Amino acid sequence: MKSGSAAGTSKPAAAGGKPGNTPCSVKKGAATPSKKPAPSNGTPPRIVVRQGGSSEPNIQLAGNAAGAHPADTLQTANQMLEATETNLKKMQGVQLKSSQRDMVNQVHQFVDQSKEASAAGDVDRARTLAWKAQLLSEELLAPQK
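RE: above sequence
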């Protein structure tokens, strides 16, 4: 066996014996890219939104109008149902086509469903159904094109 040449022995540090002076060592920060902004070619900078974040304000898409009281919503539904009944009374005695009779039946269904929803306490649904009934009844009164 030869001394000093056995496997597993470490080589002495290069030039001066300091660990940082080895040819493989890299200065800290040398490999990091510069933090200069990309050249502006008219395109806006990219904005990365993580985890679905948004800088947009929250908006309400459905339901009561902001701050609407259920009693107000119910009153609006009742007014729409009254307008619908008035429109249907105007249609009495008029000869209707098959499609118009189907619309009248649909109006009656919407009215009945609106009243059921109101009785169950679902004022938003009651108002929506009353609105649909009113729109259909107004469509029936509109002159045919």
